[in-house]
Every structure is written in structure tokens, then in C-alpha cells.
Design brief:
3-stranded antiparallel sheet, Arc Repressor Mutant, subunit A, 3 domains, 347 residues, 16% strand, 12 strands, alpha+beta
């Protein structure tokens, strides 16, 4: 087993199987979407014909939504998956959010939370889409004095309550819409079934991976993660690699890898952030080039699945800085990926 090449295939970074951004997101389960601009590249690079126009269409139609879910962080999921995923992660996410609020000295009474969410709902019932600045003006107009970070917590609470999700795609800042208006009615799933479905989505798209990787990615407890994995039965295949138990789904791929491939991954890409342990593709001595200890991930260069450098997009120009001492990028492969990236009209 070669986990590096298998992950490239299953994460749709080599020989992608899907034509639409919606299909790619559905396969991945959830994609980190911390960077509002570059999340588009994270999805489109995993399709056969990368197109920002296709991404925008799926996003605006609610086929893809951006919201806070697992690990209390920004993620992209499909509109049809949001409901059951939210039910699955809400308790753990709210625990994390309340801890952050306590650390920052913020306490929001239930009466205030309900009143603010009613303001959000009333506004969006007539305006359809809003940005954070619109919400700030709204609460100020109602005589509610509120600092920016307190408003951010209110928006997050409204997401976890199932009221808000992303609105239309805008150039720079996230917008919000009512879940009830934008998305189909959520399909309820028993928790056991939801755990199994989440495990299936993770191991088919991120495998080979460990159970600890799955627990990290989902933000759920290891006991529940093991329950979800056990429910898959023979769908889940265990293999031993360098003393580790790694799992892959029977629908995942392991053949089709070609050497000499260069990738320019956006910050917070699933290829790194989707695992608790990243040593499979990133040497521990070089990890500080890819991310810091505060959870900030930078754009990285892959060579045959190994992290070897950083890159930066400035206008129509891409600069590459290699930090791996033995890395040499094939010029033709690098040229093709830069050409593809710079064809995109980044707003």
C-alpha cells in the first residue's frame, strides 16, 4: 500500500472522477473553507474541468453551502447533507463554541439569542441575502449595542440552530441566507446511521487514514467514530503501514498514480488538514513551513503527493518557493498547473 498515491486519487487530486463541484463536495463529505476566496480552488481543482462559474452556480443554488460544522470551523458541504451533519455535530460544536465564548468573557442569554435570531429571520424574509455588515446595522437600528465579536457569536449560534447558512457567492465576504429558504428540507437520520454515513464519506475520500484521523476531522469522540466505522462492516478495509492501522473504503482507489505531478494546494486544504497526523506526506521537520501551532495553514506545493514548498498568487503571477532540500519540480507539470490556476479570474 502506498498511502500517498492512494490519498491523491481518493481526494480527487489525480484523475478526478467528477464533472461538477457539487459531486466533488458530496464525495469529500466536507471540505475546510477557512479561506473564502481559495475555497473555490479547493473544490474546482478536484473536478475534471475546473470552472469557477460552475462552482458559483452550485453555490448560489444551494447545492454547496458554507457554514460552521465539524470542529467549529468553516466547511463546505452539500445542501442535502447539511441537516443530518448539523444534527450529528451540534453538541460537540456548541461545547467548543461555548468554551471560546467563556474564554473571551462573552455570555449570551437565551432571551438575547432568540431576539437576535428573530431579527435575522425577519430581515432575510424580505432581503433574501445579507452580509455581516447588514446584521450589524440591523441590531444597531434596534438599539442593541454589540461589539463585532459578539455579533460573530450570534451568527455562529444561528448557524448551529439551523437558521442560517451561506447566501450567494460574493467576491470577498461571506453572505448569509435562511436555511429554510435556500435548502431542501433536511432528511432526518438516526444517529447510528449518520455516524456510518459520515465514516463512509470520510474513508472513501480521505483513506487510507487512521481512526484517530477520522476523530480529528469530525470533531466527534473516538468511541462514536469507532461505532460508525464498525457499522460499515466489510466496506472498510484495514491495512498495516509502518506500524499503523490505516483504513480505506472499498469504493476508494489505489491505482492510477503517475509520477511527476505537481499540485498547488490552497491554504487549509483537506489533503493536510483532513488528518490528525500529517507525516505521511509532510516531513515533521518541515511542518512549520506548511502550518503553525495556532492552526494557520499556508498554500503548499506538492510533488507526487509530498509537500515540498509554498506558493503565492499575486494578480496573474504565481511564485513558488521550495523548502524541501531535495525537491526539483518538473517544468512541464508546473507550467500546466500554473496555467490552469491563472486562467481563473480571481475577484
Amino acid at each position: 500500500m502506498n498511502p500517498v498515491s492512494a490519498r491523491l486519487l481518493n481526494q480527487q487530486l489525480i484523475c478526478p472522477q467528477f464533472t461538477s463541484p457539487h459531486e466533488a463536495v458530496e464525495w469529500m463529505g466536507a471540505l475546510q473553507a477557512q479561506d473564502y476566496k481559495m475555497m473555490r480552488w479547493a473544490v474546482t481543482m478536484r473536478t475534471r474541468r475546473p470552472s469557477l462559474k460552475a462552482f458559483e452556480q452550485d453555490f448560489n443554488e444551494g447545492k454547496i453551502v458554507r457554514t460552521h460544522l465539524f470542529r467549529t470551523t468553516w466547511q463546505l458541504v452539500t445542501g442535502e447533507d447539511l441537516g443530518w451533519m448539523l444534527e450529528l455535530c451540534r453538541t460537540a460544536a456548541m461545547r467548543g463554541l461555548r468554551s471560546w465564548m467563556k474564554t473571551n468573557g462573552v455570555s449570551i442569554p437565551a432571551e438575547e439569542q432568540n431576539a437576535v435570531q428573530q431579527l435575522f429571520a425577519d430581515y432575510l424574509s424580505t432581503h433574501r441575502v445579507a452580509q455581516k455588515a447588514d446584521f450589524a446595522a440591523l441590531v444597531a437600528d434596534k438599539g442593541m449595542t454589540m461589539e463585532d465579536h459578539r455579533l460573530s457569536y450570534h451568527i455562529r449560534l444561528a448557524e448551529y440552530s439551523g437558521l442560517l447558512c451561506s447566501g450567494d457567492l460574493t467576491p470577498q465576504k461571506n453572505s448569509y441566507a435562511l436555511v429554510a429558504d435556500k435548502l431542501p428540507a433536511a432528511r432526518p437520520l438516526p444517529r447510528e446511521e449518520a455516524l456510518a454515513l459520515l465514516a463512509r464519506k470520510y474513508f472513501r475520500s480521505h483513506g487510507p487514514a487512521s481512526e484517530e484521523d477520522f476523530a480529528w476531522w469530525s470533531g466527534l469522540g473516538l468511541v462514536e467514530c469507532r461505532q460508525g466505522m464498525a457499522a460499515l462492516g466489510p466496506e472498510l478495509i484495514r491495512e498495516r503501514w509502518k506500524g499503523l492501522d490505516l483504513y480505506r473504503h472499498c469504493d476508494s482507489r489505489s491505482l492510477g498514480f503517475r509520477s511527476g505531478r505537481v499540485h498547488l494546494l490552497p491554504p487549509y486544504d483537506e489533503y493536510l488538514i483532513g488528518y490528525k497526523s500529517r507525516h505521511v506526506s509532510l516531513h515533521p521537520d518541515l511542518s512549520h513551513h506548511a502550518h503553525n501551532n495556532s492552526g494557520i495553514f499556508w498554500p503548499v506545493v506538492l510533488l507526487d503527493g509530498d509537500v515540498v514548498g509554498n506558493w503565492r498568487l499575486s494578480g496573474a503571477s504565481v511564485s513558488v518557493d521550495l523548502f524541501h532540500p531535495a525537491a526539483t519540480l518538473p517544468e512541464e507539470s508546473l507550467r500546466k498547473v500554473i496555467e490552469l490556476l491563472t486562467k481563473v479570474k480571481w475577484k
